[in-house]
């Protein structure tokens, strides 16, 4: 299996000035779309398994599906399975013992000291097992899975808290709030580039951009120049999949061949993943 620790994968990207796409998988079809796109682009990628999909399908069925599809499609590029936005220490431990290569504990809704304490415990286990660990400081707005952070509650991460959090937890890569949001943007986002540069200069670690869907390309490229090495993409992938399926059904009202209908979604989503990979500069980096 071509699995690589998130720590190694993100560090390499950061050192070389590109970003790893962390693409959210929801079912067999979306896992297939991500894997085929990565192979075609010869790109290392992360497949994110998030809370909504875990609630609906279960951690192990999804994790095993990645294994099976890698084998079936003879995928050779480096793959990292990442646990996205876990709010439970126990769930992080479950993923750690079930061959995930990267863990995110999200304690951003907790008091600062509690966030540090639990993240630090997750990091310790992750490092003992050779996995990558992500933490989040500052609140990213929008809706992810079943959790909504109101725009007025979203907070831009300060340099001081980023540095304190990073040093005390030992995370390998750090999710910060610099003006992106989860879900669909109501207005075009404007990333706080100065803050990103300040955080990078202080923390000296790869930064993770959440809410990557709908951020204008030139802002994505600028953020990579300023230290972002992991970009989470979910909403745009779901949109492309669902829009393609809807379009197909509009034109072929009596097509009940499920595989054919789903294939339109897979093809559309695969194309978007490939575009993102090229935008992030990770194409051809599989070695
Ligand atoms: Zn996120």
UniProtKB/TrEMBL annotation:
Keyword NAD: no
Keywords, alphabetical: Metal-binding, Zinc
Residues binding dihydroxyacetone phosphate, per UniProt: 183, 211-213, 232-235
Binding site for Zn(2+) 2: 106, 136
Record's keyword annotation contains Chloroplast: no
GO biological process per UniProt: carbohydrate metabolic process
Cofactor, free-text remark: Binds 2 Zn(2+) ions per subunit. One is catalytic and the other provides a structural contribution.
Active site: 84 (proton donor)
Record-listed Zn(2+) 1 binding positions: 85, 182, 210
Single GO MF annotation: aldehyde-lyase activity
Protein name: Tagatose-bisphosphate aldolase
UniProt-listed Pfam families: F_bP_aldolase (PF01116)
């Amino acid at each position: 299996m071509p699995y690589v620790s998130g720590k190694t994968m993100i560090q390499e990207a950061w050192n070389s000035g590109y970003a790893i796409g962390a693409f959210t998988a929801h079912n067999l079809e979306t896992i297939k779309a991500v894997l085929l796109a990565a192979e075609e682009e010869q790109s290392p990628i992360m497949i994110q398994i998030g809370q909504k999909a875990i609630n609906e399908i279960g951690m192990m069925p999804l994790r095993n599906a990645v294994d099976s599809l890698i084998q079936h499609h003879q995928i050779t590029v480096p793959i990292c399975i990442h646990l996205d936005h876990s709010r439970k220490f126990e769930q992080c431990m479950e993923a750690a013992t079930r061959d995930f290569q990267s863990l995110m504990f999200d304690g951003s809704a907790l008091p600062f000291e509690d966030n540090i304490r639990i993240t630090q415990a997750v990091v310790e286990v992750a490092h003992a097992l050779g996995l990558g660990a992500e933490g989040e400081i500052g609140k990213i707005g929008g809706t992810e899975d079943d959790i909504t952070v109101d725009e007025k509650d979203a907070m831009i991460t300060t340099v001081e808290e980023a540095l304190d959090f990073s040093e005390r937890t030992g995370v390998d890569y750090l999710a910060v709030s610099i003006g992106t949001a989860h879900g669909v943007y109501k207005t075009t986002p404007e990333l706080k580039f100065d803050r990103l540069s300040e955080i990078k200069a202080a923390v000296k670690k790869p930064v993770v951009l959440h809410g990557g869907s709908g951020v204008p390309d030139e802002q994505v490229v600028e953020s990579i120049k300023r230290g972002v090495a992991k970009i989470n993409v979910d909403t745009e992938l779901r949109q492309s999949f669902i829009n393609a399926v809807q379009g197909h059904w509009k034109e072929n009202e009596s097509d009940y061949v499920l595989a054919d209908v789903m294939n339109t979604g897979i093809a559309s989503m695969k194309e978007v993943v490939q575009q993102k990979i090229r935008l992030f500069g990770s194409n051809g980096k599989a070695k």
